[in-house]
């Protein structure tokens, strides 16, 4: 049907994101020891402004993620919505800043692919086994559940099913919870994405939601405070030594294109702070 074709196109964006990240890391924009296990080939060259755009995106998201983990002293959960082949869990494990549990959600087809990579590549599976102490490791084609990491196949537009699956994998609504959506809500209708944001606000009294997207998208329904920075601003706030370093990696003739690209996107973050952790100051 038409909607199956549309969903297939949305799933394909997962490969766009991971191949662009793989390429940028191969050039040295940032370090990701795990991207290579999800995308084997470095693939075609990407334009320097694309690489710089991804650099700002990844660095910006990581700064906010790390600030939340610090604020909660890792006494929290992370839920990555539309996670695709994201490698954040492994980074947090290596940096010793793991939340109590890290959840990922994506379409079952993407989840099956990710699980296959994890199953067959020891550098990916080892950290899961190391952080798992009970004898209940669940690993089948459609889901993976360990003490500290789980992947759930679900459609983010079907909230009752999503809620049921998160419960089944022991999500705790009382724990401070960080939601991530990196280029995901834009693929849903505004009605569906606002239902999702409302559901999160209603269900998790102490939470932060980080969304990377075009400016117009974020709807603040039910959230106490919302911040947004366009990527031009984020880029200018990143540590200047590192920005200077990556700007030397590849020559960029047309600065105008990069500026247009950065102005087009933003990072928004919204908080609800029932436990008064001071999340609003992040
Ligand atoms: N967040 C990852 C990143 O930035 O590297 C992947 C981004 S990719 C552009 C968008 C992801 O959202 C895809 O993996 C896609 O399958 C997922 N997605 C979009 N709509 C979804 C939905 N309704 N339910 C579950 N996953 C969805």
Structure characterization notes:
The chain is of the alpha/beta class. It has a single domain (2-281), classed as Vaccinia Virus protein VP39 (Rossmann fold, 3-Layer(aba) Sandwich), CATH 3.40.50. Helices cover 48% and strands 18% of the residues. It has eleven helices and nine strands. It has a nine-stranded mixed β-sheet. A hairpin with a 3-residue loop joins strand 4 and strand 5 (149-153). The longest helix is centred in the N-terminal third of the chain and has 26 residues, at 2-27. It is globular, with a radius of gyration of 18 Å. The termini are far apart. S-adenosylmethionine (SAM) binds at residues 10-11, 13-14, 17, 82-84, 86, 106-107, 110, 155-157, 182-184, 187-188. Keywords: Methyltransferase, S-adenosyl-L-methionine, Transferase. Belongs to the methyltransferase superfamily. LCMT family.
Estimated share of beta-strand residues: 15-25%
How many β-strands, per DSSP?
9
Task: Indicate the CATH topology.
Answer: Rossmann fold
C-alpha termini separation: 44 Å
Shape label: globular
* The CATH architecture: 3-Layer(aba) Sandwich
- Spatial order of the strands in the main sheet? 3-4-5-2-1-6-7-9-8
| Bound molecule kinds, no repeats | S-adenosylmethionine
Radius of gyration: 18 Å
Largest sheet: 9 strands, mixed
Structurally, how many domains make up the residues?
Answer: 1
Order of helices and strands: HHHEHEHHEEEHEHEEHHHE
Helical segment count: 11
Average pLDDT taken over every residue: 93
- What is the CATH homologous superfamily assignment? Vaccinia Virus protein VP39
Return the structural class: alpha/beta
- Kindly provide the name of the CATH class: Alpha Beta
Low-confidence stretches: none
Instruction: Specify the helix fraction band.
Output: 40-55%
